[in-house]
Amino acid sequence: MNSSSNKSVRELIQQNRQQKFSMKNVMERFMPIVLFLCAFVSVVTTIGIILTLVLETRHFFEVVSIKEFFGSTNWYPLNSQPEYGIWPLVVGTLEITVIAMLVAVPIGLTSAIYLSEYASERARRVLKPILEVLAGVPTIVFGFFALTFVTPLLVKLIPGLAIYNALSPGIVVGIMIIPMIASISEDAMSSVPKKIRDGALALGSTRLEVALKVVVPAALSGIIASIVLGMSRAIGETMIVTIAGGSNPTALVNPLEPVQTMTAYIVQVALGDAGFGTIEYYSIYAVGTLLFVFTLLMNLLANWITRRFREEY
Amino acid sequence: MDTKLTTKPAKEGVKTMNQPVAARQSVYRVNDLNLWYGDDHALKDVNLDIKQNEVTAIIGPSGCGKSTFIKTLNRMVELVPIVRTNGVIEYHGRNIFDKDYEVEELRTSVGMVFQQPNPFPKSIYDNIAYGPRVHGVKNKKILDEIVERSLRGAAIWDEVKDRLNENAYGLSGGQQQRLCIARCLAIEPDVILMDEPTSALDPISTLKVEELVQELKKDYSIIIVTHNMQQAARVSDKTAFFLNGEVVEFDQTDRIFSNPSDKRTEDYISGRFG
Hints:
Chain A: It is found in: Cell membrane; Membrane. Chain A: This is Phosphate transport system permease protein. The complex is a heterodimer. By secondary structure, chain A is mostly helical. Chain A folds into two domains: about 55 residues; about 230 residues, MetI-like (MetI-like fold, Orthogonal Bundle), CATH 1.10.3720.10. A two-stranded antiparallel sheet of chain A has the order 1-2. In chain A, helix 6 crosses helix 7. The radius of gyration of chain A is 27 Å and the shape is globular. By secondary structure, chain B is α/β, with parallel strands linked by helices. Chain B has a domain of about 180 residues: Rossmann fold (3-Layer(aba) Sandwich), CATH 3.40.50.300. Chain B is built from ten helices and ten strands. Chain B has a six-stranded mixed sheet, with helices on both faces. In chain B, a hairpin with a 2-residue loop joins strand 9 and strand 10. In chain B, helix 4 packs across helix 6. The radius of gyration of chain B is 19 Å and the shape is globular.
């Protein structure tokens, strides 16, 4: 109790309550509005992006038929008689994604199992932040890493490898995604309660059996979600594939040859001198819309999987 | 147990050291067991002789080391990194702390039921089949038999037989605990350790588990930690009273509860502390 004022705490509280227009009351009234407006900004942005994409894409499809867009396997936007078949870009994107996932899933999951089930508390405290630093490396740096380090290395191993190819950026995109898969999967595995591990150990299981047969299945929803989010990252990755992948849209699957992904095409046109209102200009919106649909579907899938396979414990 | 698929290791030839030959064979013989968590001396010179096909209850106030003790019997206590032990625990004549004694081997023949029901987040069937599968039983028909026999053994078959493929976490707490007992039976252990198995259960589920313990002692040796003295009196043949990491008294349960020889035991069971 404050002896100088000679008032009891109860009296002080009463006194404060009577001040109707105190700062506290004002804050209570207006903060929800401020908070709502802040949240609203991102909703408005999303709606704006979708509207822009859809409206500009409509201009594209006024010239190019949907049948050509999805039916043709030739993507020659710069020819005198341009062809706009999206498949080469989709194939390039998927090629990069598949290579990236082949790198990222095994390494990411084994890292997660190590961190969650084997690493000592001290090792985890050192390793996890390092892993997360990898996630913070700018993709432009990864791009040059692919072009100036990984590609020359691969050329030594695989004679005849083109300087621009799908393999090198694919691997590097995979490396970029490792921390994401490892970190989310590790969180999912670490949140499996200790009592469940104890139950398995008490049945005479080894640590590896506990990790693979109990913890991984229990954390499966988180693990699958991490993989799907990683894929959506790989699909949307731009800088690495633009720098190291070349610009050769081809529907033929050959990771040793140059490719072009959807994102790299958008960069190519955006950096070029395609004038406003030309069909080339609108084509990047069409590609952008498709890209948006791809990543949206992946995120919805990740959400659905997390709910569907949620293990109760 | 004529229904067993595997033969248990022979229990003959267990040497009786320094003690008169008893009617039943010893499962565990604990000699001068000491245990420390860091600097905390949690078990002090524990000596106990646990007999086959008996229910041994371990009672004592919170923090007396009873849970620590039971977890030492299958070396689960070693999951705490700062634990040190000293002394000998012979399980069928073999020191479980021997370097070449694989902890997985020990835990395969010494099952454990925990304080909180801890089924795996899998189907009821897979919960039971987990142990046999880990130990190499792959045949679906044999697994089906094991699952049914184990669930019957834990008196839960009738309640779950129509939903073996549902997640075990859909069961009530008491059912989950009996499922954990069934999971333990599936690998046909020799001893079942129960660490306050009913502390998270309601009275009716508790009663069911107690009845089950009575049923199981025909085939298994059971060591049960409980903070409920009535439970110890109801289910056990022998009772050990732990206090501050020491065994104060270890005797026939009826003697402990009717005519304890130590004043502290009497004070505890009459509710004067703890």
